[in-house]
TrEMBL record, chains A, B:
<dbReference type="InterPro" id="IPR026022">
    <property type="entry name" value="PhoU_dom"/>
</dbReference>
<keyword id="KW-0592">Phosphate transport</keyword>
<dbReference type="GO" id="GO:0006817">
    <property type="term" value="P:phosphate ion transport"/>
</dbReference>
<dbReference type="InterPro" id="IPR028366">
    <property type="entry name" value="PhoU"/>
</dbReference>
<dbReference type="GO" id="GO:0005737">
    <property type="term" value="C:cytoplasm"/>
</dbReference>
<dbReference type="Pfam" id="PF01895">
    <property type="entry name" value="PhoU"/>
</dbReference>
<dbReference type="GO" id="GO:0030643">
    <property type="term" value="P:intracellular phosphate ion homeostasis"/>
</dbReference>
<feature type="domain" description="PhoU">
    <location>
        <begin position="119"/>
        <end position="199"/>
    </location>
</feature>
<dbReference type="InterPro" id="IPR038078">
    <property type="entry name" value="PhoU-like_sf"/>
</dbReference>
<dbReference type="GO" id="GO:0045936">
    <property type="term" value="P:negative regulation of phosphate metabolic process"/>
</dbReference>
<keyword id="KW-0963">Cytoplasm</keyword>
<protein>
    <recommendedName>
        <fullName>PhoU domain-containing protein</fullName>
    </recommendedName>
</protein>
<feature type="domain" description="PhoU">
    <location>
        <begin position="15"/>
        <end position="100"/>
    </location>
</feature>
<keyword id="KW-0813">Transport</keyword>
<comment type="similarity">
    <text>Belongs to the PhoU family.</text>
</comment>
<comment type="subunit">
    <text>Homodimer.</text>
</comment>
Length: 207, 207
């Protein structure tokens, strides 16, 4: 990534990482306080992440069309396209946390006894993003091992949260499972719609 | 998509769609029966979807590197890369449903009163994919409106499922919310790791 276009894209990628890191931090604050106003702000600000993604996408497509990149340059551009998808989704997930905060109104959605775990999950999530930011800045380091550690920590915290929920009410397992299954089908449908959107892109339909 | 490479990629995309459609159908059967053996099979078979994604990815990258496509051809290839990501994720979600089926052992995870809604969600999901398959086969149709209808139906069913869960136990709202929040953080972390993987791809590290 040496030419000015690539420098711009690289800066925008780092910008997206900073935004999604901040978004999860603010969403968590909004969830635990609870702070509906802050939650609304996180939801509104997610549009900035989406717009950045759009901008990077267009720059990369233009570069693919005009520069005929090969080898490392081509890999760079394709990797950038893929990263944008993930980062946009991370922004969406922070927005979902903020939306959950709003569901409780002025009452906290997360019971006091579980706030500590949720706070830790948010801290691990943000630490992970800061590590990713380091690896995007200086590729080729030993990032993966560090990331794996955080990712394991996250899985462990998720299990701890579920166990705490189960302890509070033994009927919870089924409720959680059925609720998650509901989300799986919904997400599956969303992805199917996303595929169809690409068909329109493919056919050159303006959206 | 006229040259032989593109025909192959197109056939493989249709193949992925057929596989993820079947996977969700089988996962639902495994969940509702319950049928742990079928669930295991769905989980194992997800590797085929992942392998197809890898194959399409490599073909598209090779085409980008050697054919220097522009305009419609470039859009085709980029759209294909994006579709693969969504389809792989759909396969993952079908696998998650199968994994949930296994959690109950020989007892059904979904209570009898909620099986009807889950069955409908699965039917809508599969119908959606069959419509997407039609649009990938014949781009430029009025697919989006049909898809929107199914997507709305899915959101409606999800709401119905949550309402039914709430009716059964008024304390459920908080359990569902906290459990979903847990999932949001976990997914956020997964996406962060996926970004880091692209950094390795970018640096040319073999995985």
């Amino acid at each position: 990534m040496r030419d000015p276009m690539c420098d711009t894209v690289h800066q925008e990628l780092i910008g997206m990482l900073q935004l999604v890191e901040a978004a999860m931090g603010r969403a968590t604050t909004a969830l635990l306080a609870p702070d509906p106003e802050l939650a609304e702000q996180v939801i509104t600000d997610d549009a900035v992440v989406d717009a950045l993604r759009q901008e990077i996408d267009e720059r990369v497509l233009a570069a693919l069309a005009t520069q005929h990149p090969v080898a490392a340059d081509l890999r760079n551009l394709v990797a950038t396209l893929r990263m944008c998808v993930e980062l946009e989704r991370m922004g969406d997930l922070a927005r979902h946390v903020a939306e959950t905060a709003l569901r409780g109104g002025d009452l906290p959605v997360v019971p006091p006894g579980l706030q500590g775990i949720v706070r830790q999950m948010s801290a691990v999530a943000q630490h992970l993003v800061s590590e990713v930011r380091d690896c995007v800045g200086y590729p080729g380091g030993h990032s993966e091992r560090l990331l794996d550690h955080d990712d394991d920590e996250m899985d462990h915290l998720r299990l701890e949260l579920d166990t705490a929920l189960l302890r509070a009410n033994p009927g919870t397992r089924s409720i959680m499972d059925v609720s998650l299954v509901g989300r799986y089908y919904e997400r599956y449908a969303d992805h199917a719609v996303a595929v169809a959107r690409q068909v329109d892109f493919l056919a050159g339909v303006t959206r």
